[in-house]
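User: My instructor asked us to take a sequence, write out its structure as tokens, and then describe one feature of it. I'm not sure where to start. Here is the sequence I was given:
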Amino acid sequence: MTRNAIALGLAAAIAIAASARADQPQWTLPQTVSVAVGQTAPIYAKRADTCGNPAPTFDEIRNRLPRTALGTFSDAGVVQRMSGSCTPDKRAVWVEARGIAFTAAKPGSEILRFFGDSVSLSVR
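Assistant: Let's start with the prediction itself. The structure tokens for your sequence are:
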């Protein structure tokens, strides 16, 4: 009886957690982003440093974003991204992350490093 109650409670908690994330967009992280001047596009999503924790705020990561003269970064809200660092077998799972958008200001190209990941950026 107690096992059934615990299992039922656990199943309910998982269902609530899953439904809470259902409204968050799922982002696949591009290795290449190509945008026109004036256009805004998703460029990266930063998960918490500790798996399972809430996504960092934009203010917490703003000063750690790469520098670029090609445009600006902005907060794209809480999203879901794949991460292979949050399971013992390195199997990729969806985790909560802070979405980062890029708005292009001038043409050019460069490779940006976001928290150890490279993104090739092209602005036309």
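For the description part of your assignment, you could build on this observation: Confidence is low (pLDDT under 50) at residues 1-20. Try explaining in your own words what that tells you about the chain.
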